[in-house]
Amino acid sequence: MQNPANEAVERFVSRPRPMFIGGAWVESLAGRTFETVDPATGTVLTTVAEGGAADVDRAVAAARKAFETRSWRRMSPLDRGALLHRIADVIEANAEELALLESRDNGKPVSVARAVDVGASVKLFRYFAGWPSKLEGSTIPVSPRGGMRVLNYTTHQPVGVVGLIVPWNFPMSMACWKLAPALATGNTVVLKPAEETPLSTLRLAELLAEAGLPDGVVNVVTGRGATAGAALAAHDGVDKIAFTGSTETGRAIVRAAAGNLKKVSLELGGKSPNIVLPDADPQAVAEAAAQAIFFNQGQVCTAGSRLYVHRAIHDEVLDALAERARKIVVGPGTDPATEMGPLVSARQHERVTGYVAGGLEQGARLTAGGGRPELGGQYAGGYFLEPTVFTEADHGMRIVQEEIFGPVLTAMAWDDVNDLVAKANDTPFGLSAGIWTSDIRHAHRIADDLQAGTVWINCYNLTDPASPFGGFKQSGWGREMGRKVLDLYTEVKSVWVNLD
Ligand code: NAD
Description:
Structural class: alpha/beta
Number of strands: 19
Strand order of the largest sheet: 13-14-15-12-11-16-17
Shape: globular
Bound molecules: nicotinamide-adenine-dinucleotide
Number of helices: 16
Distance between the termini: 78 Å
Strand content: 15-25%
Radius of gyration: 24 Å
């Protein structure tokens, strides 16, 4: 028997989906569409309008018009907060449908979509609903020449029209990480979801309208990165771009943004070291390390993809880890028993299996997975990959240095803590790291030495709307969430008043 959320998803994918511009649902001006695929079966879910530069133009114009509307600019802080709470309410009321839609479009287990993509988005809007009434400036004790009496104060104002370009790994929550602070600070938005996973964002746009968001405040242009994404990044009418995705695309966005010197914030790739000290519990660490890499099929920028285990417990941890990896239930995301779903696309599957082949060629030892699981039936064409563990890897190997963005773990033994820290830091990335030990003082010392925007001690992948998130080095620019993100979406104005 169909449940109501399932029926709603079937209805949603039963017809082609237009884009959302200026409060209206529109086709692309060129009349083009593209297909979005169910990664569990490899079959087409539905077609979506393929926006191009001309569609970006009209979305930016709609966002500019909405930004200049008095009712949006001058909305009282408490009313803006109430609007963000209403958005959280409508997401919550439609949570099961959104989670199922996300699972179908991305492939992830519906439990992950429920908790992270949808549940975390609700929390985000609730957290940022509190901020509009707390965006305080300061009065500054200045010392002007000649003893002139002046008042100098600062205010925080929205940047203007912001372009949000988001990836496919957590489609809805990555959109909400940016939308909630952008709206809380009074900006208007053009949002481009990834071409692999546009559906939850389109459904979210319907819900934003239902929550009472004025027309044009959020516009969604669906389309490809090289066309719609590039047009948005280069657009002279856009004041800021917030991007999450690969480091390569981040570089392209920085170049495109140079034309009008728009502000840019970036959340990019990672190759996070997960460090195990000799006093850690080997069985517990094996379970935690499996979670850190295989969660969301390893398609997580913070995935604990480099596991450094002290030689004293290396073999015990690795044996338990390989056993755990072999037992992970791989299947379609919509099956409640599934622990790991398919990768997002055929292209990503090919990319990740290329790294597995490369690891073998370069001489690493495969202790679990590496192949395509036999699921059969309608899932025979799905983009599944077994949870994969490599050991005996050298520091210079590509599987140690490059972001794979799939369920592939590379483990290495270590002896000397200084050498360990040097290796942990020796990649272009600096997004996150994990440390497992019962010696908490030692953990703090290592945490202090690591070049990473987030360090988790005896836990992994925890995030919270109140805690800043972002990367050192080539993992990005700026910090999302918490009070830090408000700087990314506001300009500070310093006002001087002659009191004499
Ligand atoms: P990507 O960076 O190319 O895509 C992310 C977003 O950027 C998408 O919305 C895409 O349409 C858009 N985009 C692509 N090219 C653009 C351009 N020139 N200008 C503006 N926007 C553009 O990521 P991908 O191609 O889907 O995946 C490739 C690799 O990127 C993955 O294997 C993984 O290593 C990495 N990745 C990282 C993250 C992360 O959160 N760190 C997320 C997704 C992908």
